[in-house]
Amino acid sequence: MWALLKSFFMSAQVNEIPKYKPIDFELHQQISKMDSIFFNAYNTCDLKTQADILHEDLEFYHDKGGLSTSKESIVKALKDNICNKVTRTLIKGSIEVYPIPNYGAVQVGYHKFFNKLEPNSKSKPGKFIMLWKKENSGWKISRVISLH
């Protein structure tokens, strides 16, 4: 009996979460493209492209490493700790994009990181949230929340 009740309540909870459908398809495409550009640069150690996409007023919140607010130190950390060592793979179909009026957009998704120095280690999907600010010069990442 307990298993039946548990099954009923679990399925009811899952059904409460609506399936994602882009509110603004064009915005979803733009942010997905920017995600691809940024992380292609991440995976190929193109620090210039990464730095160009990161906002000067960047805030990076990491559930393991804490808060970083210096764009310069974040780019240095990418160079020292990521370049030619770590690659990122987006979990296909996981990107959700929501407009933020008079600012830009918020992106939510899942990705995996692979450490080339530890080729046999398992990578679990991690959730990320990024705020993208629309400026005359294009889209810039202004806030990142990285959860592992």
TrEMBL record:
Identification of the protein by name: DUF4440 domain-containing protein
Domain DUF4440: from-to ranges: 31-141
Recorded coiled-coil stretches: none
InterPro entries according to UniProt: DUF4440, NTF2-like_dom_sf
Top-level lineage group: Bacteria
